[in-house]
Amino acid sequence: MDSVRSPEWPPAPLSGLSANSAAARYGTPTGATPATGRATPPTTNPAPPAGPRHGTPNAGPGRSTPPIPVKILVAGGFGVGKTTTVGAISEIAPLTTEAEMTSAGIGIDDPGARSGKTTTTVAMDFGCVTIDRSLKLYLFGTPGQNRFGFMWDDLARGALGALVVVDSSRLDDCYPAIDFFERAGLPFVVGVNAFDGRLAVDLPSIRWALAISDQVPLVQFDARDRLSVRDALLVVLDRALDRATRDRRD
Predict the structure, then answer these.
(1) CA 113 to CA 83: how far, in whole Å?
(2) For 47-75, what is each residue's pLDDT tens digit?
(3) How far is Cα 26 from Cα 33, in angstroms, rounded to an integer?
(4) Tell me: the pLDDT tens digits for 178-195?
(5) Residues in Cβ contact with 101 at an 8 Å cutoff, skipping those fewer than 6 apart
(6) Sign of the C-alpha dihedral, residues 95, 100, 104, 106?
(7) What domains, with CATH codes, occur in the chain?
(8) How far is the C-alpha of 125 from the C-alpha of 172, rounded, in Å?
């Protein structure tokens, strides 16, 4: 996917509500002056207020339009990093439905030996990120346990693509997600989450084990890193746009 290009976002803190503010993620616009707590004195000839009588900034041929909303799913098995993925990229405080794991889940919910996971998603995760002035992604993270599989059809309704998050040490946990999107005919990308910065097996071996075709993109990313998540989502977007273009030609 060398053709995928994206703006160079500045680094931002990865924790706390301040990390999800627009100012923290994108900085102050060029030429903008931060507020000092005092009102700015009015000009001699103030501009007329915007409204129906005076016209609005969006009126006329050069008006700005809101970004196009695009729904993307973040799916995968239990404990692979879906909630972390949504939280790392969202420009708002992400909506999560995390509940404490209890002893009732022992032997049923296995996050893996390397995981310190103590909570689990019981409904969905939600976040959003503005790619540019024309495009905004709305991210819906699915629950990973089989008992919540009945929600996937509803969450997938209206989605243009999906990122299937995979733990390279527990590939069998992602088979249901891949089967779901193959049956649904929804474009998807397999993103291998690099826990501790490395993979248990290489990407060609993962592609063989998952039995996915060469047309399905397979990428490595870090669910904790905002720029890495951004690049993975851009591959999903590119895949969805390619499918839409082919369907229109056909």
Answers:
(1) 19
(2) 555 544 444 445 455 567 888 899 999 99
(3) 15
(4) 999 999 899 999 999 998
(5) 109, 117, 118, 119, 120
(6) positive
(7) 70-249 (3.40.50.300)
(8) 23
